[in-house]
Amino acid sequence: MDPADAIQRQLVPGHGVKIVQRTRTNWFGSWSAHKPVRGVVGFGNGKIVATDLTNFNLGRHGTRNICIGKRGYQLYAKPDPDRPLPPGKRWVTYEWPCQLVLKSGHHVSLSDPATLRAVLATTARKRPAGVYDGVRTTLYEGTITFAQLHKVNPGMRIGFRSKPTGKYASWKVSWRLWIGRDKLVRRAWSAWREPNDSRDRSAGEQPYHAFVDDLRLSGWGMKADIQPPPADETVSSEELDD
């Protein structure tokens, strides 16, 4: 059993995994760190079916979003004068651009067996590593090109929806995976750059953006039943926009 098989065996209804995701970005020649995104990813029938995540980079106390299928729900824990809600309503639901995947960064997908196997096939080094989620791990690391990733995931895009072909095909993603004896990934790290396709890019601005993403995973197989918020506390964005 390889890590791709081990993760697929976890993707059963009623179960999930906790995540903490931290990202660093370089937009204008200097690095900035972001607060973590925390929550639970829910599984079902061989895929990711729901997420319940709080992004602490948005709002004073973070912004919580539940995503189920193609529908998203955002919690307004406190009144927002810029978007007042009807009395008794705390959640706004809308067609959300849900990304129901489990991945490090934009490209190293743990929930897609083909992508994970392609990444692991580029392993350059492995060594005993630390304990994560109470499990002793082995660190695997290497680099993979955008072309290699695009081959197993033709829908992959970079930058402002650029295809990772032509001059971008040889650009690389550096990756590290901490894998337990049970073959489950407990930490996934990736670093990469993407083209700065902005048409109004100022003279001298770097032609790419750089990113580092660090994903921690714990509680594989935990009970997870992510449900929509109570209907009587929910209002649709379509109603608010009328």
The run of helices and strands is HEEEEEEEEEHEEHEEEEH
- Give the termini separation: 53 Å
Q: Helicity, in percent?
A: 10-25%
CATH level-3 fold name: outer membrane lipoprotein receptor (LolB), chain A
Mean pLDDT: 88
Q: How many beta-strand segments? A: 15
| Total of helices | 4
> CATH class, please?
Mainly Beta
The low-pLDDT segments are: none
Q: Give the radius of gyration.
A: 19 Å
Strand content: over 45%
Task: Label the CATH architecture.
Answer: Clam
Please state the structural category.
Answer: mainly beta
Question: How many discrete domains?
Answer: 1
- The coarse silhouette is globular
Question: Major sheet: size, sense and barrel closure?
Answer: 13 strands, mixed
Tell me the layout of helices and strands.
Layout: H1 3-10, E1 15-26, E2 31-33, E3 37-44, E4 47-55, E5 63-68, E6 71-75, E7 91-95, E8 103-104, E9 108-109, H2 113-120, E10 123-132, E11 135-145, H3 146-152, E12 172-180, E13 185-195, E14 208-223, E15 234-236, H4 237-241
Parallel strand pairs: 7-15
Antiparallel strand pairs: 1-2, 1-3, 1-14, 3-4, 4-5, 5-6, 6-7, 8-9, 10-11, 11-12, 12-13, 13-14
Helix pairs in contact: 1-2
